[in-house]
Model the fold of this input.
Amino acid sequence: PTKNLAALNKYLQGVELDKIGDSEKNKVLNLQAEILFKKANLLDSTYIEPYIALGWRTFLINNNLDSGIYLANRALHFDPKNADALGLKGWILNAKGLYNESKDVLKQAIKYNPKKAVGYHLLGISYAFTNDYALSIEYLLKALKLEKDSKEDEINTLTALSIYLYLYGYYEDGLKFAEMLIECNNDSLWYY
Done:
């Protein structure tokens, strides 16, 4: 992370505002989070987590793929093996339709960080985009085994598994993961 406590504080404040903004669909809070991430990087230009957070925001909220790639590469400049930065870059390449390049980057995330779920999860979804169903499910299941510490990530992977299995015609298996999702999330609306 960083040894600069002020930068860490700005980043953590940004993360909290970002979560609240996402849950409330509040763009003002999301913009305030972006400002805090930028301030964190002004305080410590080598601190990669704010670059990654900004990259996801830039990509997902602003749909600016090139800036997202820039921020992922900026983080990778300081830590070329960082799973989260590789995941961001790989996913943006996937969004650009560069599926083979995306898969190569996501495989690097797995190679360098075999105990982190992000590479497996995103690679599983990437395989779904190219209709490679068996590999899609295989990688999503691997991600699920690693995501026991993050409820949010577990929910995302259970959602993907239930949807993809259902779409692939494995209705009973999809239903099983949908039920696991309800149990994990304690929200029966996810079932529908």
